[in-house]
Design a protein that fits this description.
It is a single chain. By secondary structure, this protein is of the alpha+beta class. The chain contains five helices and eight strands, in the order αβββααβββββαα.
Length: 181
């Protein structure tokens, strides 16, 4: 199944499912299909696509999509860190849990974990911002537009470590000259 068709299915199903609170977890099921595998197990890029599907489901179900539309904002991944533990195999059924860990004025930290047979196979942390034509949109504005009064939980230590790493990577990226061959 093509990724665009999967995305369309996730969007339609998310719109039909009940709304959840901002800091609640969203679950979706994913079947590993032949175009998802590379030499009998899921390829790295497909895991990232699965995580995209999970974030879309969560954003719709917490009502943040309407806030993003009002702001004319779209999400952009700033940093993504994944730890793979076990392989996902062809035709395996996976469950993906997605939740918001915390947010600040310019970005949201998501935690996403893939399970197969109730065993964790991959864990990801994603730092995503909302971008408009004018620049980075305030996450609080999108959450307020979603009619939520939730305040961000305090960032756990591992998120603060990932934030620090992200800043270091950003600085290194700016300092490195391009040496095209």
């Amino acid at each position: 199944m093509r990724l665009r068709l999967r995305l369309l299915i996730v969007i339609v199903v998310a719109l039909l499912r009940s709304r959840i609170e901002t800091c609640s977890a969203s679950w979706i099921s994913i079947r590993v299909l032949p175009n998802d595998v590379d030499l009998l197990h899921v390829s790295n890029d497909r895991y990232l696509a699965y995580f995209d599907l999970g974030r879309n489901d969560l954003v719709i179900r917490i009502g943040m999509l309407s806030g993003m539309l009002r702001l004319a904002a779209h999400p952009v991944v700033k940093t993504l860190s994944v730890r793979y533990r076990h392989r996902a195999r062809l035709f395996q059924s996976l469950q993906l849990r997605t939740r918001i860990v915390c947010w600040d004025h310019e970005a949201v930290w998501f935690e996403q974990e893939l399970f197969a047979h109730e065993r964790s196979i991959a864990l990801a942390y994603c730092h995503a911002a909302l971008i408009t034509k004018a620049g980075i949109a305030r996450v609080d504005d999108a959450i307020t537009a979603a009619r939520s009064t939730a305040a961000s939980p305090e960032a756990p230590a591992f998120v603060r470590n990932l934030q620090s790493l992200s800043v270091q990577m950003q600085l290194a990226q700016r300092e490195q000259p391009c040496h095209a061959t």
